[in-house]
Amino acid sequence: MKKKEVIKFILELLAQEEVFKGYSILSSQNMLIKDSGDVLDISRLELKKTYNFEDENDLNDYYELKIDVVRQFKLLHEWSFKYSFISKADLKYRWSLLEQNLELVIFPKKDSYDSDDLKVVVDAVKKYVNMVDIPGGYPDLKAYYLKYEQPLLRSCENITAQDLVFSNISKYTLYGFDWIIETLLLAFMFNRELYDDLKIKLTKHFKKICSNDEPNAVQYPDKFEDILKFNEKLVLSLDNL
Fold first, then answer.
1. Per-residue pLDDT reduced to its tens digit, 112-166
2. Partner residues linked to 63 by β-bridges
3. CA of 121: how far to CAs of 1, 64, 67, 101, 236, in Å?
4. How crowded is residue 148: how many other Cβ atoms within 10 Å of its Cβ?
5. Which of 108, 123, 182, 218 has a Cα at 20 to 30 A from 58?
6. Whether residue 117 sits in one domain with residue 59
7. pLDDT tens, residue by residue, 17-63
8. How far apart are CA 158 and CA 181, in angstroms?
9. In what order do the strands lie in the sheet containing 39-51?
10. How many domains does the chain have?
């Protein structure tokens, strides 16, 4: 079996498991996907050829399975479809939350497989997906904000507009662009009293990294204010529902 056929067979086996109830197979992307309206859940598989490094006498070929478990909160990415320089095809399955295992399981490469041959693979995927439990830990955008973004917002409350100390905040570095937009959107959505002050600070930070030719930011100087206004209108439209 070709590698693509092996992945497709694994996806078909996983789709029968309770943990993937409600998911659909998207073979072209090597993934199982569940669209719940505001949220997209994805388990993406990747195989690569490897060897049994623990046994030097074993000269057989093996496959090594990598898995990405993704949750996408669509609201956080709406701006990118209008303003990002990244293609819409690449944006479609971007993650808000990501857990990766680059070496989940290794299994022998064969000319053909049956379900028994791949039981160890299916069991490893099920165990990993249940362990990371992204949907359970982050059931909605409010939970995501409270657990993931609120600590950053708290840290920003005592930062003066002249300081550039964002690199000291856990989870973030001095660089990058999407996190700036995401943080401001969530502040406007859940902590509007902080928003104006945070907008000043992060705008200064954005200009600083642009002046340093940060590759993720230099595409956006002329779009930055428009993106913020777009997100503000988006959140306000939700307030009026």
1. 999 999 999 999 999 999 999 888 888 999 988 888 777 666 666 555 544 444 4
2. 49, 107
3. 16, 10, 11, 13, 46
4. 17
5. 123
6. yes
7. 999 999 999 999 999 999 999 999 999 999 999 998 888 888 899 99
8. 20
9. 24-26, 31-35, 39-51, 61-73, 97-108
10. 2
129 shares a domain with 98: yes
Helix (H) / strand (E) element for 62: namely strand 61-73
- 120's tokens: 């160890």
Domain co-membership, 149 together with 52: no
Which residue's entry shows tokens 């307030």? 239
Residues 130 and 150 reside in one and the same domain: no
Give the three-state DSSP class for 11. Answer: helix
Confidence (pTM): 0.86
* CA 26 vs CA 39, 42, 59, 174: distances in Å: 17, 10, 34, 36
Enter the tokens of residue 44. Answer: 């993406």
**Amino acid at position 41, single letter:** D
Q: Within 13 A of 232's CA, how many CA atoms are on the CB side?
A: 10
Same domain, 60 and 163: no
The answer to whether 10 and 122 are in contact (CB under 8 A) is yes
> What single DSSP character describes residue 166?
G
